[in-house]
Amino acid sequence: MSRLGDRSLITFLQALQQTIVKVELRADSVVKGRLDSVDENMNLTLSDVSFTPLQGDTKQLPFMYVRGRNIRYVHMSPKINPATIIEEQRTRIAQVRGIHARQMMSLKAAPKGDQETD
């Protein structure tokens, strides 16, 4: 994810992973479940889902994939402090980037004679 992405709605949604969210869709339906993953296109994977169409009965589903372009709103628990979870997510991203940078530096620093040849 780019550094601009660190300050995006996607970062916020990624910080909400493993919490219960309610997602209103453009098709006037509602999905409620545990947010398992969010990708760079804001596509969501949820589990233990309750799906309620505009007209019809609520259906219980083990999981659901929601395309980002179909999302109208994402609601979260009022107990969650958005500023706190965003900062925690940005810290996790920085830690992962630091680990990756150290690994790349150690690979560059490895002596050439240690590399295998075909």
From TrEMBL:
Listed GO CC annotations: cytoplasmic U snRNP body; nuclear body
Gene Ontology process terms (BP): mRNA 3'-end processing by stem-loop binding and cleavage
PROSITE patterns: SM (PS52002)
Span of domain Sm: 8-80
Domain of life, per lineage: Eukaryota
A GO molecular function held by the record: histone pre-mRNA DCP binding
Annotated Pfam families: LSM (PF01423)
Family annotation (SMART domains): Sm
UniProt protein name: Sm domain-containing protein
Taxonomic lineage of the native organism: Eukaryota, Viridiplantae, Chlorophyta, core chlorophytes, Trebouxiophyceae
